[in-house]
Amino acid sequence: MSGNVQLLSDTLAGAKAEGRSALVAYLPAGFPTVDGGIAAIQAVFEGGADVVEVGLPHSDPVLDGPVIQTADDIALRGGVRIADVMRTVREAYAATGKPVLVMTYWNPIDRYGVERFTAELAEAGGAGCILPDLPVQESGLWREHAEKHGLATVFVVAPSSKDARLAEITAAGSGFVYAASLMGVTGTRESVGDQAQDLVRRTKATTDLPVCVGLGVSNAEQAREVAGFADGVIVGSAFVKLMLDAPDEAAGLDAVRALAADLAEGVRGAHA
User: Fold this and answer.
1) Angstrom distances, CA of residue 131 to CA of 63, 110, 123, 158
2) By Cβ atoms counted within 10 A, which residue in 129, 167, 201, 238 is the most buried?
3) Active site residues
4) More confident residue, 271 or 68
5) Model's pTM, two decimal places?
6) Into which CATH architecture does domain 4-269 fall?
7) Can you give the pLDDT at residue 190?
8) Which pathway does this chain act in (predicted)?
9) β-strand partners of 214
């Protein structure tokens, strides 16, 4: 099976055709367990997520705030491996037929082997990878293999990115562009703010790729705000926190399903 970059593109285009932003959810693999992580992804899809990013737990995260770090630590102590990440992608995609990406730092892929990683991700039905710490100028090998296997390469842009740098990043990417709404790490925020809107405007000036905004969105009101100017709204920490705070797994699944439904309503409300 080749990768599902086309499914990702079609899903984002479909949301746009409906006059709304796409809802993109993030959940780490192996949290609270491998099976529990797969169930959580299915729950957010049931709630109304269009796309899911599966986090590959890493011991030295650069972008992830304390909530996701805590979940990653639980997954790593549970012994999660790249094989479990691939299984998570495979089962989530098989159960839903919706686009599933992996979000990972570069080091685990480098150690695992780029050809092996891209081949296995495509075989699992993955749509691509979000690579927050891979510099575009060092991404040639990855992009060659990703393209060969039909996988999207999603790069992250930040408010600090200059216009020329944005053009360089977006020219190398595929699938969509991940716009980090503010400087700093992931986590819920009181406000997503004007920085994100300005970044989306500047990014869109360089590319026809959809631009999805993450870092800080945690409720329907914020989702509605971001959906007013972005092609997709990315929510991670808010889902993970619900799973962390739940008294048991069933309650966690109910909570993330309900949040996804709330956020899905929010992304639709922006254009109503």
Assistant:
1) 11, 12, 19, 13
2) 129
3) 53, 64
4) 68
5) 0.94
6) Alpha-Beta Barrel (3.20)
7) 53
8) Amino-acid biosynthesis; L-tryptophan biosynthesis; L-tryptophan from chorismate: step 5/5
9) 180
